[in-house]
Amino acid sequence: MTAIAASGLRISRADYRNPAHADALVALLDAYARDMAGGGQPLSEFAKTHLVAELAARAQAFSVLAFDGAQPVGLVNCIEGFSTFACRPLVNVHDVVVLASHRGRRVGELMLAEVEAIARERGACKLTLEVLQGNAPAIKLYERIGFAGYQLDPAMGQAQFLQKWLG
Q: Taking Cα atoms as reference points, which of 67, 99, 93, 97 lies closest to residue 80?
């Protein structure tokens, strides 16, 4: 499914077999990785070479792309998980990328609307994501479209996102 935004942007579900989509996905994710919000380092050659095939090999993965004409300007990568409490799928929004040239034009909002539509088609009970505290524009976007901090009981506080790298 492809959605056409009023601004002329085209939002589409990525086809990992389409070389133009594959190239756009890698280029946009590399641009994000190089940005301070993505860690400030380029993607490894291994990731650049294998990412699209690895995503394509996983039925729980999907991506949404934004194009301004032929130029790729945005990407959202998602991975389906499972909520044991709801006994339904959930969709984790893993990467949100909008090129600096197109920020402030609601590209992220349009892509996330498509992500929500896909999540609903999959029967998901919710969307999840993580965002760095210092990324105020992203937080503003996420809150504007309905995301909020996760908590079960206010007395227990909000959830924290932790990680442990495996060597």
A: 93
Could you read off the pLDDT of 9-25 as tens digits, one per residue? 999 999 999 999 999 99
Whether residue 126 contacts residue 147, with contact meaning beta carbons closer than 8 Å, is answered with no
Global confidence as pTM: 0.92
CA distance linking residue 104 with residue 81, whole number of Å: 30
Strand ranges in 84-123 using DSSP code E only, listed in sequence order: 88-98
CA atoms within 13 A on the CB side of 81: 14
Distance CA 91, CA 128 (A): 6
Contact by Cβ (8 Å): 136, 33: no
In the block, tokens 């133009």 appear at 20
Contact 120, 89 (CB under 8 A): no
Among candidate residues 46, 55, 41, the one with its CA nearest the CA of residue 13: 55
Phi-psi domain of 105 (left: phi exceeds 0; alpha: psi -120 through 50; beta: other): alpha
pLDDT tens, position by position, 33-80: 999 888 899 999 999 999 999 999 999 999 999 999 999 999 999 999
